Amino acid sequence: MQTMISAAEIQKRVDEVAAEITKVYGDQPITIVGVLTGCLVFLADLIRRLEMPLRIALVQASSYRGTSTTSGQLKVQDDLLPDLRGKHLLILDDILDTGQTLHYMVGHMHKLGAASVRVAVLLRKVGRQKIPLDPDFFGFEIPDAFVVGYGLDYDDEYRNLPYIGILGGVVDP
Ligand code: XMP
């Protein structure tokens, strides 16, 4: 597995992103809306660096079905979500690729009555975005390759790698 971003680089950058988030929210209570399953490792690392009053809500979204090829079809399950009316939400996802997932999530959160909605992603793929959406916070911009590790998977494997790797020979078309 070729390393794209080392574990140490990720940890350093998560520190910085946490500081940026703290600067924006201060002591404001927030609800982190984690987009399962890819958000899990980033979420676990990030929240331990945040000191404002914080709740966690989870939503499941999938647009890839076990491979690195997008199905184009977004499936969202939000029955785990608590009442988000009047809450300040920070949506957290592993990667911004075409923008489909996060664009939908932002609209959905507004419909659920959020007081404010911001977006944080660990990775932002350059040159892939189809729907304009500027994340409020992001860790790294990466070239267009299929990446795994630190929560990101290929066929549900590799999520436990502490670094971001490029899966040999599997590159998005
Ligand atoms: P969109 O296109 O909606 O995609 O912005 C976001 C979701 O697609 C998955 N995705 C990836 N997963 N390696 C992965 O393991 C990748 O390179 C990759 N690119 C997109 C991911 O689930 C993300 O939430």
UniProtKB/TrEMBL annotation:
Q: Which cofactors must be present for this protein to function?
A: Mg(2+)
Q: Where in the cell is it found?
A: Cytoplasm
Please state what class of enzyme this protein is: transferase
**Its pathway?**
Purine metabolism; IMP biosynthesis via salvage pathway; IMP from hypoxanthine: step 1/1
Any idea where the Phosphoribosyltransferase domain is? Answer: 9-154
Which InterPro entries has this protein been placed in?
Answer: HGPRT (IPR050408), Hxn_phspho_trans (IPR005904), PRTase-like (IPR029057), PRTase_dom (IPR000836)
Q: Which Pfam families match?
A: Pribosyltran
Q: Which GO terms describe its molecular function?
A: hypoxanthine phosphoribosyltransferase activity; magnesium ion binding; nucleotide binding
Recorded superkingdom:
Bacteria
A biological process (GO) of this protein is: guanine salvage
- Keyword annotations of the record: Cytoplasm, Glycosyltransferase, Magnesium, Metal-binding, Nucleotide-binding, Purine salvage, Transferase
Query: So what does this thing catalyse?
Result: GMP + diphosphate = guanine + 5-phospho-alpha-D-ribose 1-diphosphate; IMP + diphosphate = hypoxanthine + 5-phospho-alpha-D-ribose 1-diphosphate
A single GO CC term for this protein reads: cytosol
Q: What is its EC number?
A: 2.4.2.8
Q: Which PANTHER family match?
A: HYPOXANTHINE PHOSPHORIBOSYLTRANSFERASE (PTHR43340:SF1), HYPOXANTHINE-GUANINE PHOSPHORIBOSYLTRANSFERASE (PTHR43340)
What the entry lists under NCBIfam families is as follows: HGPRTase
What is the similarity comment for this entry?
Answer: Belongs to the purine/pyrimidine phosphoribosyltransferase family.
What protein am I looking at?
Hypoxanthine phosphoribosyltransferase
Q: Which organism is it from?
A: Telmatocola sphagniphila
Q: Which gene encodes it?
A: hpt
